[in-house]
TrEMBL record:
<protein>
    <submittedName>
        <fullName>Uncharacterized protein</fullName>
    </submittedName>
</protein>
<dbReference type="InterPro" id="IPR045534">
    <property type="entry name" value="DUF6428"/>
</dbReference>
<dbReference type="Pfam" id="PF20001">
    <property type="entry name" value="DUF6428"/>
</dbReference>
Amino acid sequence: MIYRNITISNKYKAMNKIEANNWKTFKDTLLQHPDLDLQFQYAEGKLVDPAYHITEIKQAPITSVDCGGVMNAWTEIIVQLWVPEGEQQERSMKVGKALSIVDIVEKMLPLNPNGTVKIEFGNSEFDTRQMFPNEMIVSENALIVDLRPDAVQCKAIGRGGNCGTNDKGEECCAPAVVEKPKVQLVNLAAPAEACCTPGGGCC
């Protein structure tokens, strides 16, 4: 099967922050294409092997306090992919099959529709990581989920604030100012007889 070439190199280079999809948006897109092959692109021009399994779907409520002293709370929905070693398959699973797995999960674990979606994947050439679904591209007989890596960010700076302050109002991430000790200079060129006179600097 031949799919159109997807050029995304500039997008990967320019990526600073990906706007995350919530679970409802992600699932609604799947529901629109049940008969297409579901593929995941984890790097430029690289698709997850068609023999992949969806091994589990995790829901992770997260609570944090950022460096500006603000509490944050959100939920992540993590879809884990696994490729069995030595297993071969010409075509990936249909979107409809993936949705049947979602149905099994949601009968036991109601998933937050506003949860942030991440796809977890790794293989022998690609360290396991969680990535955001960026674009969901219909290409011939496939729905391709284009994945992008997560990026670390400072929430305080993102709000236009500072990265915390101490009790003096100083920013916690500013370089520390260390006061240098004062050094008393001794005039070595002074006459020897003056060495031990009051104020001569020898004691």
